[in-house]
Amino acid sequence: MPPRLDVDARRAQLARAVWHVVLTQGVGAVSVRTVAHEAGVAVGSLRHVFPTRAELLEFSAELIVQRAAERVRAVPQDGDPLAHALAVLEELLPLDATRRAEMEVNLALVAEAPALPRLAAIRDEAAAGIALLCRQAVERLGGRDDESTVRRLHALLDGLALHLLSQEPGEDVTWARALLRAELERIASHHG
Q: How confident is the model at residue 1 (pLDDT cuts 50, 70, 90)?
């Protein structure tokens, strides 16, 4: 049996192939055969790692969440709560080509949730994680920690993400950063 690192690397390679198929052909084109072809591996090799299409899609969704979580954890904790909150929450927005591709794939995979309940669970876990980050941002800013404030911030993030996806790649994104900063400043200004 190959070392675990090789299996993990193969799983990530196959997930990236899923993402490419979704981005270029749509989620309906994702099959064991098309992903194997995209990854340059034999169908049997892919099936050894992911026996079913469902497992392949589920891992691909989990990897998107994992990558976003790693980016969030990598944001340095400095003394400025506003700058930190802004940097953390910006990691959840499609502000560059990588995050845009992840968001597009994520939305396509979420659309598959009715047929694959595990995708719905992954979606719900990711939403809970975003809600937690919003709650932490509100707390760090000294804002009113009520459900309304947290939901408003979460809804703003979701709305910004969709609006950013609706514009052409490479278009100006400073407006989204400015809106997010303004909301965080509003939260900070409304203490207890």
A: very low
